[in-house]
Amino acid sequence: MAKGFMAGLKGVDAFGKTTEDVKVKTRTGAFLTLVSAAIILSFTLMEFIDYRTVYTDTSLIVDRSRGEKLSMRMNITFPRVPCYLVSVDVMDISGETQRDISHSIRKNRLDSSGVQIRGSRLTGLKNEIEKNSEDKGPDFCGSCYGGKPPESGCCNTCEEVRTAYVQKGWSFSNPDSIEQCKSEGWKDKLEEQANEGCSVSGRVRVNKVVGNIHLSPGRSFQSSSRDIYELVPYLREDGARHDFSHTIHELAFESDDDYNYRKARVTAEMKKRLGVGNPLANLTMTTRKPQYMYQYFLKVVSTQFRTLDGQLYKTNQYSVTHFERDIAEGGQGETPQGVLAMHGMYGTPGVFFNFEISPILVVHTDTRQSFAHFITSTCAIVGGVLTVAQLFDGVVFATARALKKKT
Amino acid sequence: MATEEETSLMEKLDSVVPAPLAQFDAFPKIPSTYKSRSESRGFMTVFVCLLAFLLMLNDIGEFIWGWPDYEFNVDKDTSSFMNINVDLVVNMPCRYISVDLRDAIGDRLFLSGSGLRRDGRTLSHAFCDSGHSAISEIRGLFDTLLRRTSRAEIAPTYSHPPHPSACRVYGTIEVKKVTANLHITTLGHGYASREHVNHNLMNLSHVITEFSFGPFFPEIAQPLDYSFELATDPFIAYQYFLHVVPTTYIAPRSDPLHTHQYSVTHYTRVMEHNQGTPGIFFKFDLDPMSLTIHQRTTTFTQLLIRCVGVIGGVFVCMSYAIRITSHAVKVVTGGEDEVIAVASSSGAKAGLRSKWGGGELRSRGKMIRQGSGWTMESNPGSPALGGGYGSYANTPLSQTFSPAASPYLSSPSFSSPSFSSPVIPSSNPGSPNPSASFSPPSSRPSSLYHPRTPGGSLSSIAFSNAAAMSSPSIPGTPAFSNFPPTPNPATGNGAGFPTGPPPRRVPSDGAGAKKDD
């Protein structure tokens, strides 16, 4: 070997080798070698599987977002309430109210067996209306019959008269006396639709504060800052029994990220993998009593998902409890346990979703073991197994020789 | 005999593996003649074994007992009702208090009549009962998990005093899972009532033995358990604000335990008449997050992997450390090489052999290089050496070997190499005495040997120097005086180890045995 530096390195060689003729090879040694090789392979394989597995870490932080809005997406079917009776309203603690939302909510008529009536919208009455107004001439301006007229000053359709009445605070109880309704055949339509159901779907945009979304019969209006529900057409038994049995197909709170199709898809997939998501999916409540109130109390928790490539997705989860109450039983009733209970609030029939926002933000992070960790464990396994096997082999060899010498 | 059985066992083991496979033996076993052993390394081996065992204890502990793993999720439970378990004593007769619950929906539950039972007690009894229950709660939570058999009930009252001055309110009620307010008020102050409690009789001191949500587990101590308040004023309001979190405990090898935990803050307010409602108020609301405490353990394969890694790592590291240290020591003390033909001789293996092997395995000492030859390092403490080789001291042949060493063994600490004939008796206490070479090693007084080196090599140097004839240099020595070249692994020299008689063994008079490194 060369002198000098290389020779100096030779002294540092930690991996000294034994020459072949000095080594003693035994068969048990070979056996142990093969066994160790098998063990090392299996352990390394397990470590490799561990390395590739994706784990999800959950952590909680305080939600410091500002100015965000929630979108509640829902899809609810009422088998025994016709669409003209269902109205969706939002109220929240800041005083903001949205009444009778129609721009983002779609109501589809269902027949009595639950099948959607083709080509029908609530505005399906429009065709007839247009025909009627064409008959009457372009300058026809219908009277509002004392109700509060819209901006145009004219109530040309039955629906507009009804809205005018509601705005004034009157109940629309007698459509026969109103000419617009008579010419549209409003009453016939009512009777025709009396046996139908309604499927309500769409998105409602709310503030991130304590609030309340409810689906109730009739139109709601505000009179002297109290919300009053126009219940008369609902309660009047026109031959059909209406009740608020419902099936919730989907109820979710979305953030603005979910409007992006690709992000929404990733979010949905992660939610499914974690098993979180829609506690109210496919929940069915049935009743036969017309005056029945369903209350859902939801607590919304903001959530973030971080994927392996570092992307951030924002969404929401919620936890829910639900209660129902028969309003017809009056002020007092009994709990299931038999305890006397008095109801402090008078209820209205319908479905009420009361939600509040939690200050905690949940972050689900996808992580994986690093490559360095995998290499370290592999080295540890290989070294450990080999050393232990070598020790064991040495012991066996020495024992064998010692015993042989004794004989 | 046993040995025959043992050998046949080895042969049986050998027969398992076919002969050609023996080539695959990856563990080089070197016959122990090529290994050097020492007692200090044996001690290190024991120490390393102990260290590895201690490190393994941590992993074993994790396998048996595990560690608690905390997880938060949004609560997925959609049930509408939950239980509240109450057991408290208020220091007023039962007919004067009213127990109700109001929830966020607006319902008011009348719990005075049904739902919660009320018994007459005295407050001192209440303290006794609390003590008894407290002792049973000292058992740990996971004891509960493994021992629970049936649903527990709050213990009924056993002793009814004749004139009860206090009221025990206890039982389990089912309430809706919404924000609510459970309160105990006095008649006439609070809800509209026909009766009115005299202000002198109003004493809202209370002892809470149990207040928990969910299924009743008497062993779990909740924050309000065993708390009491003594009222100083008739018009006083105790308000407890509770925040409830659903919790699931999962212990290894047992079912999950669903319950609720809560945190409580507490506020006492003294008021004037008609300024507020006196009473005891428990206002609670629910958290959407649920907590899961999972006692996790490692699996058996993980335990094996870790133990194997620990043992292997510790042994290998120690062996390298020992090797480096001894090498460094050799470098520092100057140039006496050792013949260690074993590349993989970890101190551990040597130590194991020294533990398990027979006594004859210990007999090899260190060979010391003397010029191109080798001398056996003498070790008077070792009986084998002393007994085995002492006889060679008288070999006339031995005299011829010593001159070979002289030019190469100039140790810096050896000041005056005194060259004298081998037969000069030891008259000089300071100089090494060659006459002792012919006497048994045990007779040497130990004080004559100075200085000591770790390798103990000086003594031999000294003696060989002292015994040196006026021989010029190595090349002049007769051929038979040289040992055959050493089997140095680096040079690949495959010559066998010298089996000839060892050179004249000059016993050292070192104080006791030479220190092995």
UniProtKB/TrEMBL annotation, chain A:
* Residues that span the membrane, as ranges: 30-49
Supply the Pfam families for this chain: COPIIcoated_ERV (PF07970), ERGIC_N (PF13850)
Q: Where is the Endoplasmic reticulum vesicle transporter N-terminal domain?
A: 9-98
Keyword annotations: Membrane, Transmembrane, Transmembrane helix
Its placement in the membrane is given as: Multi-pass membrane protein
Is the keyword rRNA-binding in the record?
A: no
Query: Which subcellular locations apply to this protein?
Result: Membrane
Is the keyword Membrane assigned to this protein?
A: yes
Please indicate which superkingdom the organism of origin belongs to: Eukaryota
GO BP field? endoplasmic reticulum to Golgi vesicle-mediated transport; retrograde vesicle-mediated transport, Golgi to endoplasmic reticulum
> Which family does the record claim for this protein?
Belongs to the ERGIC family.
- PANTHER family the record matches: ENDOPLASMIC RETICULUM-GOLGI INTERMEDIATE COMPARTMENT PROTEIN (PTHR10984), ENDOPLASMIC RETICULUM-GOLGI INTERMEDIATE COMPARTMENT PROTEIN 3 (PTHR10984:SF25)
Q: What is the protein name stated in its UniProt record?
A: Endoplasmic reticulum vesicle transporter-domain-containing protein
Organism in which the protein naturally occurs: Rhodocollybia butyracea
Q: Which classification does the entry list for the species?
A: Eukaryota, Fungi, Dikarya, Basidiomycota, Agaricomycotina
From TrEMBL, chain B:
Q: Report TM segments.
A: 40-57
Q: Which ranges carry the Endoplasmic reticulum vesicle transporter N-terminal domain?
A: 21-108
- Write the record's keywords in alphabetical order, separated by commas: Membrane, Transmembrane, Transmembrane helix
- Name the segments for region: Disordered: 419-454, 468-517
In which residue ranges is the amino acid composition biased (Low complexity)? 419-447
Which residue range or ranges hold the Endoplasmic reticulum vesicle transporter C-terminal domain? 165-319
Annotated GO CC locations: COPII-coated ER to Golgi transport vesicle; endoplasmic reticulum membrane; Golgi membrane
Q: Where is this protein chiefly located?
A: membrane
Where would you find this protein in the cell?
Answer: Membrane
Q: Could you state one GO biological process linked to this protein?
A: retrograde vesicle-mediated transport, Golgi to endoplasmic reticulum
PANTHER family linked: ENDOPLASMIC RETICULUM-GOLGI INTERMEDIATE COMPARTMENT PROTEIN, ER-DERIVED VESICLES PROTEIN ERV41
- The protein, known as: Endoplasmic reticulum vesicle transporter-domain-containing protein
Organism of origin: Rhodocollybia butyracea
Q: What is the lineage of its organism?
A: Eukaryota, Fungi, Dikarya, Basidiomycota, Agaricomycotina
